[in-house]
Amino acid sequence: MTTNDSPPGSSYAAPDGEHPREPLVPYRPGQDSGDAARSFYETIKKRRTVRMFSDRAVPRGVIEDVIRAAGTAPSGANKQPWRFVAISDPEMKHRIRLAAEEEERAFYERRASERWLDDLKPFGTNPDKSFLDDVPWIVVVFAMKTTDDGGQVYYLNESVGIATGMLLTAAHMAGLATVTHTPSPMGFLKEVLERPDHERPYMLIPMGYPSEDATVPKIGKKPLDEIAVFVD
């Protein structure tokens, strides 16, 4: 039996039915925690939703590592109930664009309330999703309603939401731009990509470099005192 004095890399004994234990290898940023937190904030605040992409190629290895980063997210009972389908094939991207635009036209013409449309008006969004043809990669996030072998999953939306946030962050840290696109309904993605019944489309994320002339709405984020409450 090993003890807490065991050397790094060894395993600690665990009660029956539990995973073996191993020493934590903590991340150390190499600077004061306050400096590290501020540095990350200064970097991540530059992340913006982009709809103007360059056709500049993004190596598959970059997308693989972005997805690997998302896959480190915590999940209920470690079931990891997510699937990331990465598409670079031009024909498949175009099929997705046509299907997405069909749903978007229905949204803008019939499904959205007047209040919703009014809230969207300042951002200039519309049914045109031509950027789906331009962008080098589309990553479709699927939420797995069961494991591949039919097992139970827990906290599905929470788990996939965390992983998706980490996917967006990893893409930003790699210098890539993204937009979170949720055409409603999204069932067409399962059909076009021929995914199994236990996978539910969660989000469509174009991923690539922004175009040289890319612009974004001039908006701000709520200040700290509007998003946080401290109980000291």
Explain what you see:
- The relative contact order is 0.18.
- The chain contains eight helices and four strands, in the order ααβαααβαβαβα.
- The protein starts with 32 loop residues before the first helix and ends in a 5-residue tail after the last helix.
- With 232 residues, it is an alpha+beta fold.
- The longest helix has 22 residues, at 90-111.
- It has helices spanning 33-44, 60-70, 90-111, 114-120, 131-134, 156-173, 187-192, 224-227, and strands at 82-87, 137-144, 177-178, 199-208.
- The model is unreliable at 1-6 (pLDDT under 50).
- The chain is globular and about 60 Å long.
- A four-stranded antiparallel beta sheet has the order 1-2-4-3.
- It has a domain at 58-208: NADH Oxidase (3-Layer(aba) Sandwich).
- Helices cover 36% and strands 11% of the residues.
- Helix 2 (60-70) crosses helix 6.
